[in-house]
Design brief:
Blueprint (H helix, E strand, L loop, with lengths): L10 H16 L4 H8 L3 H25 L6 H8 L2 H30 L4 H18 L1 H28 L27 H19 L3 H5 L7 H38 L3 H7 L4 H36 L18 H17 L7 H20 L2 H4 L4 H15 L3 H21 L13
Length: about 425
């Protein structure tokens, strides 16, 4: 049976898939823990994360242009560094992003129907899985709708925040609900403590940028990938950096940095405190749920395509490599990912246990940057300092995450090493040229 995927995505489709994956994971989720770690230096955290993300994105884009196959860094690492680095990158991505998908699904439930959050999360996962199985073009169309709604609501929020007389840190109103276990801000500490806080905050901010990997993992389904993927990655991450900076500025303008750090949902809390907040806040709540849906949809796409690539090489069960004859989607992988995520959200609350996701994704991009350095200068199309800076940034930011996240991430990769040792005897490592 033909196991290749069809190239059905154009430039705008690829851009929107990346936007949907990033905005939902970041603008409503990452600011509070980042501000709690970095205090008033949260802007530096955002800048550090943005620099590392841009370097990673440029490296990934060049690699995707050279290896336009499903699987992203799993494929790049395998082809340029060897089977083990490629496998560990793919393993970390699949495990970490599966947890991330569960967290995004629970976010959907908590915003749209808090009393039944787990049920809403499971239904959302299954519904988006069906949409994904029906075809990547339909998925891209759905992402355009979701992203359009979220950006429109955020634009209204930003305008309301900056023009309101209540828009100041000293504005009256109830204090935001505290985040359980939030790390105190570091504004009173000496410079070394502040720097560590900035780097720790950057780890949370980086989680919000990681969605551009979806574009690369869809490399086998993008038309003219050598041109489309680099452009789509650059456009998507540029738009997201601008959106994050503007929304963070508006949120800090209303709540203050300490208010952002203490809030479980800072954008929503800020919306409640501006004039006409009784109207705007419910709209923001719905937009947050929609944004989380977009991130969840991008997550299902990315995890299923990496699962497909690993199954092709027999590191995962071979049936996961099946491609639907009509829709040309990896439907078995998509269904399995959807079912696993749905079971997770029904069985446990993983929102407080996904710190290892950021760690795993940073290691994933460490492999990507290292692989990019193995390209010759002509094929890389980038100065060597770009992947070097990206790799160093990944190591520093990963090491600055809370120790629980680091330990959890290391456990994930140790388990991955065991799986690799077990599956290696039957694994195959074909070149990607026949799939391009």
């Amino acid at each position: 049976m033909n196991s290749t995927l069809d190239r059905r995505l154009g430039p705008s489709d690829a851009v929107v898939v990346g936007l949907g994956a990033m905005i939902g994971a970041g603008v409503f989720v990452a600011f509070a823990p980042a501000a709690a770690r970095a205090g008033s230096w949260v802007w530096a955290s955002l800048a550090v994360a943005a620099v590392v993300a841009v370097c990673n994105a440029l490296s990934s884009a060049r690699l995707a242009a050279q290896f336009p196959a499903a699987g992203g860094t799993y494929v790049y690492g395998r082809e340029l560094l060897g089977p083990l680095p490629g496998f560990l990158a793919g393993w970390g991505f699949v495990v970490g992003k599966t947890a991330s998908c569960a967290a995004m699904a629970l976010t959907v439930g908590l915003y749209l129907w808090p009393e039944q959050s787990s049920v809403v999360a499971a239904v959302s996962v299954l519904a988006l899985t069906v949409l994904s199985v029906l075809g990547v073009q339909r998925t891209a169309t759905a992402s355009k709708v979701l992203v359009g709604i979220v950006l429109a609501v955020l634009a209204v929020f930003v305008v309301a925040a900056f023009v309101s007389s209540a828009g100041s840190p000293a504005a009256p109103g109830a204090a935001p609900a505290a985040v359980p276990g939030a790390v105190p801000a570091v504004d009173g500490e000496a410079l070394p403590g502040r720097i560590l806080g900035v780097l720790g905050g950057a780890g949370f901010c980086f989680f919000a940028f990681a969605g551009y990997a979806r574009i690369a993992t869809l490399g086998e389904e993008v038309r003219d990938p050598s041109r489309t993927i680099p452009r789509a990655v650059v456009i998507a991450i540029s738009v997201v950096i601008a959106v994050y900076a503007i929304v963070l500025a508006a949120t800090v303008h209303v709540l203050g940095v300490q208010g952002v750090a203490a809030s479980a949902a800072p954008v929503l809390d800020a919306a409640e405190r501006v004039p006409a907040g009784e109207v705007l806040a419910p709209v923001v709540r719905i937009a947050a749920g929609i944004a989380a849906l977009g991130a969840l949809l991008g997550g299902v796409l990315g995890v299923s395509r990496t699962t497909l690539a690993m199954a092709r090489d027999r590191h995962l069960p071979a049936p996961l490599a099946a491609v639907h004859p009509t829709t040309r989607t990896p439907y078995v992988a998509e269904i399995c990912v959807g079912v696993v995520v749905a079971v997770i959200v029904l069985a446990a609350d993983v929102r407080q246990a996904i710190g290892f996701s950021s760690f795993a994704v940073l290691i994933y991009y460490l492999v990507a940057n290292t692989a990019a350095l193995r390209l010759d200068r002509r094929r890389r199309g980038l100065p060597a300092w770009v992947p070097v800076l990206g790799a160093v940034g990944c190591v520093i930011v990963a090491g600055s995450l809370p120790w629980q996240s680091v330990v959890g991430g290391l456990v994930v990769f140790v388990v991955g090493g065991v799986v690799y040792a077990v599956t290696r005897p039957r694994a195959v490592t074909p070149g990607v040229g026949s799939r391009a």
